[in-house]
Write a structure and sequence with these properties.
Blueprint lengths: L2 H18 L5 H16 L4 E4 L12 E4 L5 H6 L7 E5 L8 H8 L2 E3 L4 H16 L4 E3 L17 H9 L3 E7 L1 H4 L13 E5 L8 H18 L7
Parallel strand pairs: 1-7, 2-5, 2-6, 3-4, 3-5
Antiparallel strand pairs: 6-7
Helix pairs in contact: 1-2, 1-4, 5-6, 6-8
Length: about 230
């Protein structure tokens, strides 16, 4: 219900945003923020732990999180931090939702296309250099069982090359509320976001290993399955 009017607001704003804030598109993210938080408000509570670990809004960082559900992105907007997230290119063609992602400047990716993968990494590096933060799900896709799988290094290579902090985030509960492949059903429950301390290194391997361990160890506290 709120999607259509907010999308029209974004359409009206887009020429001015592209003219004055081409990379960060802060105003567009603010609309995304309102959209996502109003959407989740009446359906499930979101608890945030480790708020003190969140960087200032104007500090470019690489956020990384485990990926359980379609609800992950909606839930992460509860952090009230601007970021550009990486999504399958196909999603950008979905009316209203995909179009709004395009207007906000989120980054498209064809997972099986090597050229698209390289272009995605280049786009993310360009965003960081312009002061924008980016969000990755390093597992690459959602698990049907909500089980966490091994992280890929793409996000961490960006952070290492540009020497920006990585902020690992553990998402708990979205997979139970809305299972992958069963997006038409929303169960009752709550979502917990755990913000871990930032880590920084010029080694992509080190960043990947540390982030995966932090998120995995936190999931184990909630009796989640993780691949070891």
């Amino acid at each position: 219900m709120i999607a259509v009017p907010l999308f029209h607001v974004m359409l009206y704003m887009s020429p001015f945003v592209l003219m004055f804030d081409k990379f960060k598109r802060t105003a567009m993210h603010a609309v995304n923020d309102i959209w996502a938080n109003l959407t989740t408000l009446f359906f499930y509570p979101i608890e945030i732990k480790g708020k003190e670990n969140l960087p200032p809004k104007d500090t470019p960082v690489v956020y990384v999180a485990n990926h359980q559900s379609y609800l992950d992105i909606f839930s992460l907007f509860a952090l009230h931090r601007p970021f550009k997230f990486v999504s399958k290119t196909d999603i950008f063609y979905i009316p209203i939702v995909g179009w709004s992602m395009f207007l906000t400047g989120h980054v498209g990716l064809k997972r099986t296309d090597r050229r698209s993968q390289m272009a995605c990494l280049q786009d993310c590096r360009a965003l960081i250099k312009e002061g924008a933060s980016v969000l990755f799900f390093p597992e690459g896709t959602r698990s049907d069982t909500a089980e966490m799988t091994s992280f890929k290094k793409g996000a961490f290579s960006i952070a290492a090359k540009d020497n920006v902090p990585v902020v690992p985030i553990t998402i708990v509960g979205t997979g139970q509320l809305m299972q992958n492949g069963n997006e038409g059903r929303l169960r009752t429950g709550k979502v917990t976001l755990v913000i871990h301390p930032t880590i920084q290194s010029k080694s992509a391997d080190e960043l990947c290993q540390q982030s995966e361990k932090l998120i995995k160890d936190e999931l184990l506290k909630y009796d989640y399955l993780v691949k070891v």
